[in-house]
Amino acid sequence: MFYRDERLALFIDGSNLYAAAKALDFDIDYKLLRTEFMRRGKLLRAFYYTALLENEEYSPIRPLVDWLNYNGFTMVTKTAKEYTDSMGRRKVKGNMDIELAVNAMELAPHVDHIVLFSGDGDFRPLVESIQRQGVRVSVVSTIRSQPPMISDELRRQADNFIELDELRDVVGRPPRPESSYAQTSNSEVEPETESAE
Protein backbone atom coordinates (compact mmCIF):
# COMPACT_ATOMS: atom_id res chain seq x y z
CA MET A 1 0.00 0.00 0.00
CA PHE A 2 2.93 2.36 0.64
CA TYR A 3 6.10 2.93 -1.38
CA ARG A 4 9.29 4.01 0.38
CA ASP A 5 10.05 6.79 -2.11
CA GLU A 6 6.59 8.38 -2.18
CA ARG A 7 5.98 11.78 -0.64
CA LEU A 8 3.37 11.48 2.13
CA ALA A 9 1.17 13.93 3.99
CA LEU A 10 -1.04 13.12 6.97
CA PHE A 11 -4.34 14.91 7.57
CA ILE A 12 -5.71 14.16 11.04
CA ASP A 13 -9.31 15.09 11.88
CA GLY A 14 -8.61 15.31 15.63
CA SER A 15 -12.09 14.83 17.05
CA ASN A 16 -12.92 12.05 14.59
CA LEU A 17 -9.71 10.11 15.28
CA TYR A 18 -10.15 10.59 19.03
CA ALA A 19 -13.71 9.22 18.84
CA ALA A 20 -12.60 6.21 16.77
CA ALA A 21 -9.72 5.35 19.13
CA LYS A 22 -11.99 5.82 22.15
CA ALA A 23 -14.56 3.46 20.58
CA LEU A 24 -11.76 0.88 20.22
CA ASP A 25 -10.61 1.56 23.81
CA PHE A 26 -7.07 2.77 23.21
CA ASP A 27 -5.12 6.02 23.08
CA ILE A 28 -3.05 7.19 20.13
CA ASP A 29 0.64 7.81 20.76
CA TYR A 30 1.29 10.58 18.24
CA LYS A 31 5.07 10.20 18.41
CA LEU A 32 4.69 6.54 17.38
CA LEU A 33 2.13 7.48 14.72
CA ARG A 34 4.50 10.00 13.12
CA THR A 35 7.41 7.54 13.31
CA GLU A 36 5.31 4.80 11.67
CA PHE A 37 4.43 6.95 8.66
CA MET A 38 8.01 8.27 8.35
CA ARG A 39 8.95 4.61 8.01
CA ARG A 40 6.35 4.05 5.28
CA GLY A 41 7.47 6.90 3.01
CA LYS A 42 8.90 10.42 2.85
CA LEU A 43 6.67 12.26 5.31
CA LEU A 44 6.48 15.90 4.22
CA ARG A 45 3.73 17.16 6.52
CA ALA A 46 1.52 15.93 9.34
CA PHE A 47 -1.48 18.20 9.93
CA TYR A 48 -3.69 17.97 13.02
CA TYR A 49 -7.08 19.74 13.04
CA THR A 50 -9.02 20.61 16.17
CA ALA A 51 -11.30 23.26 17.59
CA LEU A 52 -10.42 24.85 20.93
CA LEU A 53 -12.75 26.29 23.51
CA GLU A 54 -11.97 29.88 24.35
CA ASN A 55 -12.54 31.43 27.76
CA GLU A 56 -11.72 28.15 29.50
CA GLU A 57 -9.04 28.37 32.17
CA TYR A 58 -7.90 24.85 31.32
CA SER A 59 -8.57 22.93 28.16
CA PRO A 60 -7.95 19.17 28.29
CA ILE A 61 -6.62 19.29 24.75
CA ARG A 62 -4.10 22.11 25.36
CA PRO A 63 -1.22 19.77 26.41
CA LEU A 64 -1.73 17.71 23.23
CA VAL A 65 -1.84 20.81 21.02
CA ASP A 66 1.35 22.15 22.60
CA TRP A 67 3.14 18.80 22.35
CA LEU A 68 2.17 18.29 18.69
CA ASN A 69 3.30 21.85 17.88
CA TYR A 70 6.81 21.10 19.15
CA ASN A 71 7.06 17.58 17.70
CA GLY A 72 6.71 17.84 13.95
CA PHE A 73 2.95 18.37 13.51
CA THR A 74 1.34 21.38 11.86
CA MET A 75 -1.52 22.45 14.09
CA VAL A 76 -4.65 23.92 12.55
CA THR A 77 -7.04 25.22 15.18
CA LYS A 78 -9.98 27.55 15.50
CA THR A 79 -12.26 28.65 18.28
CA ALA A 80 -15.16 26.31 18.95
CA LYS A 81 -18.62 27.79 19.30
CA GLU A 82 -20.47 27.00 22.50
CA TYR A 83 -24.27 27.06 22.68
CA THR A 84 -27.24 25.60 24.53
CA ASP A 85 -29.56 23.32 22.55
CA SER A 86 -33.37 23.22 22.75
CA MET A 87 -33.17 20.68 25.61
CA GLY A 88 -30.97 23.03 27.66
CA ARG A 89 -27.81 20.96 27.15
CA ARG A 90 -24.43 22.66 26.66
CA LYS A 91 -23.07 21.86 23.20
CA VAL A 92 -19.81 22.65 21.46
CA LYS A 93 -19.56 23.02 17.69
CA GLY A 94 -16.14 23.04 16.09
CA ASN A 95 -16.08 21.57 12.60
CA MET A 96 -12.69 21.70 10.85
CA ASP A 97 -13.72 20.10 7.53
CA ILE A 98 -13.22 23.21 5.37
CA GLU A 99 -9.76 23.92 6.76
CA LEU A 100 -8.69 20.33 6.17
CA ALA A 101 -10.10 20.27 2.65
CA VAL A 102 -8.42 23.54 1.65
CA ASN A 103 -5.03 22.42 2.97
CA ALA A 104 -5.32 19.02 1.26
CA MET A 105 -6.17 20.63 -2.09
CA GLU A 106 -3.23 23.05 -1.75
CA LEU A 107 -0.76 20.30 -0.89
CA ALA A 108 -2.00 17.67 -3.39
CA PRO A 109 0.27 18.82 -6.27
CA HIS A 110 3.33 18.31 -4.03
CA VAL A 111 2.67 14.79 -2.68
CA ASP A 112 2.13 11.28 -4.00
CA HIS A 113 -0.02 9.90 -1.18
CA ILE A 114 -2.33 11.51 1.37
CA VAL A 115 -3.39 9.67 4.51
CA LEU A 116 -6.67 10.95 5.92
CA PHE A 117 -7.44 10.07 9.53
CA SER A 118 -11.22 10.43 9.49
CA GLY A 119 -14.32 8.43 8.70
CA ASP A 120 -16.47 11.45 7.88
CA GLY A 121 -18.38 10.86 4.65
CA ASP A 122 -18.30 14.59 3.91
CA PHE A 123 -14.69 14.06 2.78
CA ARG A 124 -15.65 11.75 -0.12
CA PRO A 125 -15.73 14.57 -2.76
CA LEU A 126 -12.36 15.82 -1.46
CA VAL A 127 -10.82 12.36 -1.81
CA GLU A 128 -12.24 12.02 -5.32
CA SER A 129 -10.83 15.41 -6.35
CA ILE A 130 -7.37 14.63 -4.94
CA GLN A 131 -7.37 11.29 -6.77
CA ARG A 132 -8.13 13.10 -10.06
CA GLN A 133 -4.88 15.01 -9.47
CA GLY A 134 -2.98 11.71 -9.45
CA VAL A 135 -2.59 11.42 -5.68
CA ARG A 136 -3.36 8.17 -3.87
CA VAL A 137 -5.50 8.48 -0.76
CA SER A 138 -5.58 6.12 2.22
CA VAL A 139 -8.22 6.55 4.89
CA VAL A 140 -7.67 5.50 8.50
CA SER A 141 -10.74 4.78 10.64
CA THR A 142 -12.61 1.76 11.97
CA ILE A 143 -15.40 -0.58 11.00
CA ARG A 144 -14.94 -2.56 14.23
CA SER A 145 -16.85 -0.15 16.45
CA GLN A 146 -20.61 -0.15 16.87
CA PRO A 147 -21.68 1.68 14.80
CA PRO A 148 -18.71 1.79 12.38
CA MET A 149 -16.87 5.14 12.48
CA ILE A 150 -16.32 5.33 8.71
CA SER A 151 -18.96 6.05 6.11
CA ASP A 152 -19.34 3.42 3.42
CA GLU A 153 -19.02 6.05 0.67
CA LEU A 154 -15.66 7.29 1.97
CA ARG A 155 -14.33 3.78 2.39
CA ARG A 156 -15.30 2.87 -1.19
CA GLN A 157 -13.74 6.06 -2.60
CA ALA A 158 -10.36 5.66 -0.88
CA ASP A 159 -7.52 3.82 -2.62
CA ASN A 160 -6.78 2.05 0.67
CA PHE A 161 -8.71 1.64 3.88
CA ILE A 162 -6.55 1.20 6.98
CA GLU A 163 -8.36 -0.30 9.96
CA LEU A 164 -7.35 1.75 13.01
CA ASP A 165 -7.66 -1.31 15.25
CA GLU A 166 -4.89 -2.99 13.22
CA LEU A 167 -2.57 -0.06 14.03
CA ARG A 168 -3.19 -0.49 17.78
CA ASP A 169 0.09 -2.37 18.40
CA VAL A 170 2.07 0.15 16.34
CA VAL A 171 0.63 3.54 17.38
CA GLY A 172 -1.46 2.80 20.46
CA ARG A 173 -0.97 2.73 24.16
CA PRO A 174 -3.27 1.21 26.79
CA PRO A 175 -6.23 3.35 27.84
CA ARG A 176 -5.86 5.36 31.01
CA PRO A 177 -8.51 5.68 33.71
CA GLU A 178 -11.17 8.19 32.66
CA SER A 179 -10.19 10.58 35.48
CA SER A 180 -6.67 11.00 34.11
CA TYR A 181 -7.70 11.99 30.56
CA ALA A 182 -7.45 15.67 31.46
CA GLN A 183 -3.80 15.22 32.46
CA THR A 184 -2.64 13.25 29.40
CA SER A 185 -1.27 14.68 26.23
CA ASN A 186 -3.75 12.56 24.32
CA SER A 187 -7.15 13.86 25.34
CA GLU A 188 -9.34 15.55 22.80
CA VAL A 189 -12.29 17.86 23.25
CA GLU A 190 -15.22 16.15 21.59
CA PRO A 191 -17.05 18.87 19.69
CA GLU A 192 -20.47 18.07 18.34
CA THR A 193 -19.88 16.27 15.07
CA GLU A 194 -22.09 14.67 12.54
CA SER A 195 -22.06 10.91 12.15
CA ALA A 196 -19.81 9.25 9.63
CA GLU A 197 -22.67 9.16 7.16
Question: Would you write up a description of this structure?
Answer:
By secondary structure, the chain is α/β, with parallel strands linked by helices. It has a single domain (7-183), classed as Rossmann fold. It is 30% helix and 26% strand. It has 7 helices and 10 strands. The chain has helices at residues 14-23, 30-40, 62-70, 97-107, 124-132, 152-157, 168-171; strands spanning 7-13, 27-28, 42-52, 74-79, 81-84, 90-93, 113-117, 136-141, 160-163, 172-173. It has a 6-stranded parallel sheet with strand order 4-3-1-7-8-9, with helices on both faces. A two-stranded antiparallel ribbon has the order 2-10. A hairpin with a 5-residue loop joins strand 5 and strand 6 (90-93). Mean pLDDT is 87; it is low at 179-197.
Write the SSE topology.
Layout: E1 7-13, H1 14-23, E2 27-28, H2 30-40, E3 42-52, H3 62-70, E4 74-79, E5 81-84, E6 90-93, H4 97-107, E7 113-117, H5 124-132, E8 136-141, H6 152-157, E9 160-163, H7 168-171, E10 172-173
Parallel strand pairs: 1-3, 1-7, 3-4, 7-8, 8-9
Antiparallel strand pairs: 2-10, 5-6
Quick overview:
The chain is of the alpha/beta class. Helices cover 30% and strands 26% of the residues.
**Count of distinct structural domains:** 1
Number of helices: 7
Rg, Å, rounded: 16 Å
What share of the residues does DSSP label as strand, in percent? 25-35%
Strand order of the largest sheet: 4-3-1-7-8-9
CATH superfamily: 5'-nuclease
Task: List the helices and strands in order.
Answer: EHEHEHEEEHEHEHEHE
Tell me roughly what share of residues is in helical segments: 25-40%
For the sheet with most strands, the description reads: 6 strands, parallel
CATH architecture: 3-Layer(aba) Sandwich
**In terms of per-residue confidence, which ranges show pLDDT below 50 for 5 or more consecutive residues?**
179-197
Under CATH at level 1, the class stands as: Alpha Beta
